[in-house]
Amino acid sequence: MKPYIFSFLMIFMALQTVSAQTDQQPSECSITDGCLTYSLNGATRHDEDTYILSYTLTVNCDTRLEYIAFELPEGSDADEPSNYFASQPDFNVEDGKSGKSNKIITDYNAIQFTAKTQTNISNGTSYTFEYPISVEDYNALGSIRVQAKVADAEPSNIEFNHRVCAPLNPMPECRIDRGSAVFGFTGATDNGDGTTALRFDLQNNTAATVKSVAIEIPGAPAGVTTVSNNNGNAYHANYKYTATYTDGILLFEAQNTNDYANGNTDYFIFSLPTAAYNPEENFTISLATNAETIVTGFNTVTCGEDSPISPLPVELLSFKGKATQSGIELQWETASESNNDRFEVERSLDGKTFDKIGSVDGAGTTSTKQKYNYTDYVNRAGIFYYRLRQVDFDGTDDYSKTIAVRLQSLPGGGKFAVYPNPAHGNTVTVSVLGTGADVNGGVLQIVDMSGRVMLVHQVTAGSREIDVSLPELQLPKGMYVVNLLQGTDKQTQKLIIQ
């Protein structure tokens, strides 16, 4: 037990009307039994491991309240010396059944408020009762039973789901509601030692207990640590986990997550090097039960600009581009998709006017992370701007952010490119890039592995791209050689048809 500073806690009971907070609570948090109306108003934090539970009781009949009792875990007292409560003016307070069974009227361990002679709570009067409870005792209770009695009547008994009505860590405003689970970001704090602590809240709305929680850290930096292993200690987590960090994945595996279901919430705290914390990157978070896995992504800066966040049909985690030997390779990831038909890739030379250059099929509807790529076989050096147009099956669309990629030299050192490669469709495009064919022309050949020439095409001066129809050539699946002949110069690329 820890003493409280009287002037800070101000926990003595005050005669008052029901607070506005109860109007915002779920319906099961206000229960009427006979002439008594009980409300569990909520929980407020007092210190690191203690909360104050607040209830309001309204007596709607003309007989006075004799007592009210609130369940505690067996063998526990409220987290405050009971003689403190004895000093409050309206009720005598008994704290726990140990050694006091003649005073506690309930069959279970409880903290009981018995009305003093001069206290008359009746005729529609409301009274608010508060008492401190440790996080450990809060978690030990599957529910909280409450018993009250008015004069000349049998005791009234009701039961509250305190995890719904008085959650210790209510979901923050910055949250993404995916139905089966709600993901909340509560903030990032510079620890002052070269690390930054990030805090996420996860609410499991399914009936299945949480099996694991995984957080993917952008860039997979070294030095990621959890707070006290999130082992269920007060203000670290409500449940127990074993936490491991490997290759950018911070995994919390359940050791004891009984009842982490049906709307219950837990929170996860970890630190990473401040230099590696890039708030413009997204953290991918997944909550897994035995029945399903729910995935989302968080941008820890922009999530606060529109809270709570309404999940988009497609949650785009990242969109990046880089110069390669083949051209400019674009890569993007999604956390989840709903009715996603396709991604259209658009390119611009000035960052203002965009043209569609390709399309990639979407995954439809999925809660599993998806990875995509597209290579733009450009034919000159410079800066290129790209964006994605995501299109649903019903035609609804949305645009990604715009990225810029600098290509300092022609791909392949000026060689021509063949794409898509491997070829799956009806057309293969040959881009002559900056080889000189766009000025002097040349001859294009496709040769099978036995040396038979399957295509001869004259490249006219000024040509940059040539579309080859595979059905017209009737080429079977396999590997081919594509030759570009320019005088005595011969360039070769391999082509695979699937």
From TrEMBL:
Q: Does the keyword Cell membrane apply?
A: no
Keywords of the record, alphabetical order, are:
Signal
Secretion system C-terminal sorting domain location, by residue?
A: 418-497
What protein name applies here? T9SS type A sorting domain-containing protein
Q: Which organism is it from?
A: Pontibacter populi
Entry-linked InterPro entries: Ig-like_fold, Secre_tail
**Gene3D superfamilies recorded:** Immunoglobulins
Signal peptide range equals 1-20
